[in-house]
Structure formats: structure tokens, C-alpha cells
Design goal:
It is built from eight helices and seven strands. With 175 residues, the protein is an alpha/beta fold. Strand 3, helix 5 and strand 4 form a beta-alpha-beta unit.
Length: 175
């Protein structure tokens, strides 16, 4: 698995639930698809989240404990991914959100102490295979939980569905 390098574009606090991530409050008059979800993503927590996350071609989201709690909306991790997030590094993730993100190919690393160790603007290097996060801005190494070995092939394929399509030999090849 390749390392992910990027800037922390947004940092959020604790207990951000899926209703805040994928809120109906901002979806009035919009369509219902991943690009539409991205336009509304996390605006409850940070009104400018989509623009901040997309800045510079996308970046890293740092979050506190219990991120993604609440209902099992697949639109929540999808919308964050569509905003340009390369990875989410959090103190702790809600189990259903974590697994949904993993299934979509969105890297989520649990790293206790990350909110005290990384700030908006910091340049990070994340190794999903080892869980090691290096903060180039602060010359600091944080040990997070690696992506489980049995899921590495799934990530490399781009998520659960592409992985299964490859395994079954039914994936459409791009020209």
C-alpha cells in the first residue's frame, strides 16, 4: 500500500455523527448522488468544509473520538471522499462508519493523540500498512492502527466492490 502525503485541510472535534456529515439541511433543491452529497458534506460542523477539503486537490481530515456515530449512511463516507479527502485520521471511529469507509476505499486510521499532534496546515505522511503518521511540520511521529492486512488488497483494488469484481472476473476494464 502506498503512503499518503497531504496537508491537514480540516480538523473537527468529537462525536460528529452521520447526520452532521450527510445532512439534509443543506440538500434542499439538489439531486441525490455522490456529487450532490459532497456539496452538503459536514456543513453543519464547518460551513465551508467542501471547499476547505477540496483545496489544493484534496487533503487529510483529522477528527476526534466517535467520528461517524449514528446511522449507517453510506452517503457519509462517500461524501467525504467526494470532497477530496485522501484520508481521515481520528482518535476513534464509530464501527459502522469505519467499515463503510474501508469498503469504499477511503483510508481511515485510528491514532490516539492525533488531535493534539496535528493542526490545519500541517503536512502529514501516512503509512496505512503500518499506521505510522509522520507530521513533517512538527517533526513528530504518531503511531496509529494500521489497515488490517486482510483489507490491503481491497484498498489496492479501490474498495470492496472493485475487489469483488476483480475476484469474480467481472470488472469492466477502462480504456
Amino acid at each position: 500500500m502506498e503512503k499518503i502525503c497531504g496537508k491537514v485541510n480540516v480538523k473537527l472535534g468529537d462525536h460528529i455523527d452521520t447526520d452532521m456529515i450527510s445532512s439534509n439541511q443543506f440538500s434542499k433543491g439538489k439531486g441525490y448522488g455522490p456529487k450532490d452529497w459532497a456539496e452538503c458534506c459536514l456543513r453543519v460542523a464547518d460551513r465551508d468544509f467542501p471547499e476547505k477539503m477540496a483545496a489544493g486537490g484534496g487533503g487529510i481530515l483529522v477528527v476526534g473520538v466517535n467520528f461517524g456515530c449514528g446511522s449507517s449512511r453510506e452517503s457519509a463516507p462517500t461524501s467525504i471522499q467526494m470532497c477530496g479527502a485522501k484520508a481521515i485520521i481520528g482518535e476513534e471511529f464509530a464501527r459502522i462508519f469505519y467499515r463503510s469507509a474501508i469498503n469504499l476505499g477511503l483510508v481511515c486510521i485510528e491514532a490516539p493523540g492525533i488531535t493534539a499532534s496535528a493542526d490545519v496546515g500541517d503536512q502529514l505522511e501516512v503509512d496505512p500498512a503500518t499506521g505510522i503518521i509522520y507530521n513533517w511540520t512538527k517533526d513528530l511521529t504518531i503511531q496509529g492502527s494500521p489497515i488490517p492486512a486482510n483489507l490491503v488488497q481491497q484498498f489496492e483494488a479501490g474498495g470492496l466492490m472493485p475487489y469483488l469484481q476483480d475476484k469474480l472476473g467481472i470488472r469492466k476494464k477502462e480504456d
